[in-house]
Amino acid sequence: MEKDNDYFYVLKCAEGRLYAGYRNDLEKRVMSENSGKGAKYRRGRGGVEVYYDECFGRKREGMEEEYGLKTWRGKKKDVYIEEMGIEKEGGDEEREKV
Hints:
Shape: globular
Radius of gyration: 13 Å
Helix content: 25-40%
């Protein structure tokens, strides 16, 4: 992964939830999450692994992808996650965490 690119990513958390975001250095993001120094929401929740990532040439594109996923509900989000090839655990409870 190149540090000069912007990534939209989905992380799978130790408790099985999915966490989406964008970052220009995905490896650094994963390391900070796994060391407990990542997002406030994630602190103390265990490690993460990259479940999906997509590289964009512009930050805005990655941000738009994250925003879309986080604002979609129900069927539309399920279809998108399925198209990304992500296996989602749980039901409606898991869907709302992305």
